[in-house]
Design a protein that fits this description.
InterPro entries: INTS3 (IPR045334), INTS3_N (IPR019333)
Radius of gyration: 24 Å
Order of helices and strands: HHHHHHHHHHHHHHHHHHHH
Largest sheet: none
Shape: globular
Organism: Cafeteria roenbergensis (Marine flagellate)
Protein name: Integrator complex subunit 3 N-terminal domain-containing protein
Distance between the termini: 74 Å
Pfam families: Ints3_N (PF10189)
Number of helices: 20
Length: about 350
């Protein structure tokens, strides 16, 4: 183990050669980090070193920037650290967590994008690294300001949602995933609905997938968080992709959200009715109905029950037959004029 650090440094020199003056400086920082990855110290001790050593946290961030700018550079590092076993991966995970906010606050968008690749590597490295990936991802979610309308922020959201979508099965399997993830996904979906409906729908779909697979206790809170995404005036086009995404993730999420809200308070009941009105308005229009119906999962009967039993009959009479036919046939036909 004692000889592992020089091996890492030499390997890094190979992938960084030729290197600029800046990269040489960062490489020196990396050599300071290498003993942390190879020493037989506990993860807690590694974290303590990062926290206590003057400037080491910044140095760790610098070294990560140097070797993680591209997958080609990062791959040798990951291969070597994996060869060290769980202890090496644990140390790297802790350093990634410690460096996440430094990287995202200080460095360019290219580096932020590459860090998402690092998170993905942690996810696929095994269950031992899932906690580090969770911590790092929620750290990024905290970093993203919902009030930031810059292109850089939007691009970062797109990359993060792309990663989470790619790892959807991992996301929904994390029973202990912090509530912040679900909360921030719903906030992002609501914040992006007017300026980027596609990203908004992607965030809503991920949130619904988490809710649909969560234990009852977590699912209840998740449905309450999702319900505001469904509240819209009839005909509001911005809610269309969100509703389609939520319906695609499971009609039970919609049904349980509206039903639970109506049972608990007049205010929530009003919100539930508005949500149903918004959904019904989508089903009235042919193009909107086609979008929603295309996302409906089997069995279609559950969606028919939702539409016909949860929406007041006075609102949907005249449309119920068309909606039911469309749901059962899977193709949208022109309905009666509203």
């Amino acid at each position: 183990m004692a000889k592992a650090a020089p091996t890492v440094a030499l390997c890094t020199r190979d992938v960084l050669d030729p290197i600029s003056a800046l990269e040489k400086d960062l490489l020196e920082h990396y050599e300071r980090l290498a003993p942390l990855l190879s020493a037989p110290a506990s993860v807690e001790h590694s974290r303590e070193l990062v926290a206590r050593a003057g400037g080491l946290r910044q140095a760790c961030a610098g070294c990560l920037v140097a070797v993680l700018l591209t997958p080609a550079r990062a791959r040798p590092l990951f291969d070597h650290v994996k060869a060290l076993g769980a202890r090496g991966l644990g140390a790297l995970s802790e350093l990634v967590k410690e460096s996440t906010m430094v990287l995202f606050e200080t460095f360019a968008d290219q580096v932020r994008s590459q860090m998402l690749w690092v998170f993905n590597e942690l996810i696929i490295s095994g269950p031992q690294q899932h906690a580090a990936a969770q911590s790092a991802i929620t750290g990024v979610l905290r970093f993203i300001s919902t009030g930031d309308t810059s292109t850089r922020s939007t691009n970062l959201v797109a990359r993060l949602l792309g990663l989470l979508s790619h790892q959807r099965s991992w996301v929904v399997a994390q029973r202990s995933l912090p509530a912040l993830l679900l909360h921030r996904l719903t906030v992002l979906a609501d914040d992006l609905r007017t300026r980027n409906p596609k990203l908004s729908a992607q965030a809503a779909s991920l949130a619904a997938a988490v809710v649909a697979s969560a234990p009852d206790s977590s699912a209840r809170a998740g449905r309450e968080a999702i319900l505001p995404l469904l509240v819209a005036e009839p005909g509001d086009a911005t809610v269309e992709p969100i509703v389609a995404a939520l319906v695609g993730a499971g009609s039970t999420v919609l049904t349980a959200s509206a039903s639970k809200a109506e049972a608990e308070s007049p205010t929530a009941a009003s919100a539930g009715r508005a949500a149903k009105s918004g959904l019904l308005a989508l089903l009235h229009g042919r193009s909107q109905r086609k979008c929603v119906l295309a996302c409906l999962p089997p069995p279609l009967e559950s969606a028919v029950v939702f539409v016909l039993s949860k929406v007041p009959r006075a609102q949907c009479s005249g449309y119920a037959g068309w909606i039911a036919d469309d749901l059962l046939s899977g193709c949208a036909r022109p309905g009666p004029a509203p």
